[in-house]
Amino acid sequence: MLSHLKGIEVFLAVAKHGSFSAAARAMGVGVPAVSQRLKVLERDLGVSLLTRTTRAMDLTPAGRVLLSGAGPALEQVQATIESARSAGKAKSGTLRLTIPWSAYKILVAPVLADFQAAYPDIRLEMSFDEALVDIVREGYHAGFRLGDRLADGMIATRLTGPLVAAYTASPDYFTEHGRPAHPEDLLSHRCICYRFVSANRIADWPFLIDGHETTMSPPARLVFDSFRSVVGGALEGHGIGWSLRAVVEDALADGRLEAVLEPFAAMHPPFYVFYPEENRQLEPLRLFIAFLKQRRAS
Question: pTM of this prediction?
Answer without folding.
Answer: 0.67
